[in-house]
Specification:
single chain, 201 residues, alpha/beta, Rossmann fold, five-stranded parallel sheet, four-stranded mixed sheet, 20% strand, binds guanosine-5'-monophosphate
């Protein structure tokens, strides 16, 4: 059995990657999502059973100590990390996993799992990014400013990814992301067992 595929998706806060991802999961129901552990306070509209598990700084540090995180990073004063066990269990069981991380997390994962396929979701322009962050109203002006500064640094790293998806038109961004997922599974090196099976019969 082939191991599962590991996908990494990043994009600056406000790039719309969550919306893209939600649609991608509707189109790829077999794909598993890696729930991150984070120490940031819950935002309005977030729930304990969503894409994050909210834990204390002490709990997070204990997970680092016990090597239970595949990667972790501090982002705007809070910790974010990917629990190792879920990802490894899925991959070993042949299930594909999507990890959403910032650029530092992506770098750490690429170092550990070089065959991971990485996708960067990019806003069409700086102005659009700024407008999306301001309009969503979940952060105050200072937090928006911090996130914008962080975003510019992140976009500089987009070139390190395998693919860049521009999120201007949502449908097109979703379509492109699904195409990347499908095409990467068809890569010849992932299908050698099938070919050998046919040839050897
Ligand atoms: P937010 O606070 O807006 O939900 O997320 C802030 C940033 O943290 C986003 O760029 C998001 O992709 C990233 N992030 C989410 N989960 C993880 C994680 O497990 N590890 C790392 N390194 N970054 C994460």
């Amino acid at each position: 059995m082939n191991k599962g595929m590991l996908y990494i998706i990043s994009g600056p806060s406000g790039s719309g990657k969550d919306t893209v991802l939600n649609e991608v999961f509707k189109r790829c129901p077999e794909l598993k999502f890696s729930i991150s552990v984070i120490t940031r306070p819950m935002r309005e509209g977030e729930t304990a059973d969503g894409k994050y598990r909210f834990i204390s700084k002490a709990e997070f540090e204990e997970m680092i100590e016990k090597d239970q995180l595949l990667e972790h990073n501090e982002y705007v004063g809070n910790y974010y990390g990917t629990p190792r066990k879920f990802v490894e269990d899925c991959l070993n069981a042949g299930k594909d996993v999507m990890i959403e991380v910032d650029v530092n997390g992506a770098r750490q994962i690429r170092e550990k799992v070089p065959e991971a396929v990485s996708i960067f979701v990019c806003p069409p322009s700086f102005e659009v990014l700024k407008k999306r962050l301001t309009d969503r109203g979940t952060d105050g002006p200072e937090a928006v400013r911090q996130r914008l500064t962080e975003s510019v640094g992140e976009i500089k790293k987009a070139i390190d990814y395998d693919y860049i998806v521009i999120n201007d038109d949502l449908n097109e961004a979703v379509e492109n992301t699904v195409s990347i997922i499908k095409a990467s599974k068809l890569k010849s090196e992932r299908n050698t067992a099938l070919i050998n099976g046919i040839v050897n019969q």
